[in-house]
Amino acid sequence: MRAAPPKRATHQPQDSSARVLKMPAAVPAIDCMYYVATQEFMQQWDRAKQGELECRMERSIGGLPRYPSVEEMLRLMDEASVERVFICQAKMWSYWRKWMYMDTRLEDVLQYTERYPNRFVGLAGYNPFRIKESLAEIETAVTRHGFRGVYVHIYGFDIPLNDAKMYPLYAKCVELGVPVSMQVGHVLEAMPSDCGRPIYLDRVACDFPDLKILGAHTGWPWVEELISVCYKWDNVYFGVDAWMPRYLSPPILQFVNSRLGRDRCIWGTNGLPWKENLEQLETLGLKEEVKRKLLRENAIQLFGLDKLPKAKTAWTEADATLVDEGEPLIAER
I need a labelling partner for 35 at 20 to 30 A (CA). Which of 42, 72, 149, 309 fits? Predict the structure, then answer.
């Protein structure tokens, strides 16, 4: 039985003029991979996935985080020096039971992006079984609500990323001038992982050379496939997300720190703890320029965050205090 959808609500942008962010002397990070994590939404997700696989990894970490309020989420972001978080309108089709068991609505994402437009960024979702309706909603999300791209979770649909059902999405993203982020590599739900082989992005890039593509989740265990596509194409990026940094494989670290990789890597967490993730990142021996690009600058470039209204901020290098006056937090360095 489908879980009852949460009540629809409209949210007014909140006056954050008095909000002061105390950030340590570090790069204000941008997390390009997150999801709706309210208590209400996660309870709905718990009900929907009853009878689905609870994989060994999920059991080991105790499941995905959930927050009693958006403000509590912001508090943890501030503690970790995370400036912005991308909230994905995730659409996940159950391979076993053949229904959309994670069906995130625009309203679920808007409760973040409309209330705190200076802290959260929306990515629209896509259902390849409802192409016309999905494309219309994506256009609404981008043109009316300022979403900066689209996120795809392909596995349960049991089609590869270069399937014909995906091409209308890619054409729409080119038309709207926004990137598409796609999980590549293995999947931890009860779905076939081979649908997300990173090498499929090579054919997509051949057919859509103007489409900006982010291969999320590192592509593991086919990391070298994603690296090879990033070596070849200017428009393909490597998502360093969904892994704690201490577990990143040597080829990933070598690519991130390399001349050809440093401009192509984007950081994210997929719900892993921000503070611990960033602390581990500091132990990897990355060059300072590489850390700036990975944590911030590449995301700004890929998603066009520099085209948003300029931030009205006061930045003091002495104590790295960022004062938010209600505009997007793109700090000028």
Answer: 309
Which phi and psi (to 5°) does residue 303 adopt?
A: -95, 5
Cβ atoms 113, 308 nearer than 8 A: no
Estimate to the nearest angstrom the gap between the alpha carbon of 271 and the chain centroid.
10
Crossing angle, helix 131-145 and helix 167-176, to 10 degrees? 20
The Cβ-side half-sphere exposure at 70, using a 13 Å CA radius, reads 20
241 contacts 213 by C-beta, under 8 angstroms:
no
Q: Are 125 and 89 in contact (CB under 8 A)?
A: yes
Q: What is the largest CA-CA distance in the chain?
A: 56
Cβ-contact 93, 130 below 8 angstroms: no
Residue among 252, 256, 281 at smallest CA distance from 269? 281
Alpha carbon distance 246, 283 (integer Å): 8
* Each residue's pLDDT expressed in tens, for the chain with a length of 333 residues: 334 444 434 444 444 433 444 444 479 999 999 999 999 999 999 999 899 988 887 787 777 889 999 999 999 999 999 999 999 999 999 999 999 999 999 999 999 999 999 999 999 999 999 999 999 999 999 999 999 999 999 999 999 999 999 999 999 999 999 999 999 999 999 999 999 999 999 999 999 999 999 999 999 999 999 999 999 999 999 999 999 999 999 999 999 999 999 999 999 999 999 999 999 999 999 999 999 999 999 999 999 998 765 433 233 333 344 434 344 333 332
- Candidates 75, 105, 33; CA nearest to 303 is 33
Do residues 133 and 125 lie in contact, with contact meaning Cβ atoms separated by under 8 Å?
no
**Domains within the chain, CATH numbers bracketed:** 26-301 (3.20.20.140)
- CA neighbor of 214 nearest in space, from 178, 188, 258: 178
Confirm if 305 and 299 have CB atoms less than 8 A apart: yes
With 0.70 as the threshold, say if the pTM is over it. yes
Q: Which of 248, 216, 85, 74 is nearest to 152 (CA)?
A: 216
Rounded-to-integer distance, Cα 239 and Cα 254, Å = 14
List the structure tokens of 217. 């989740």
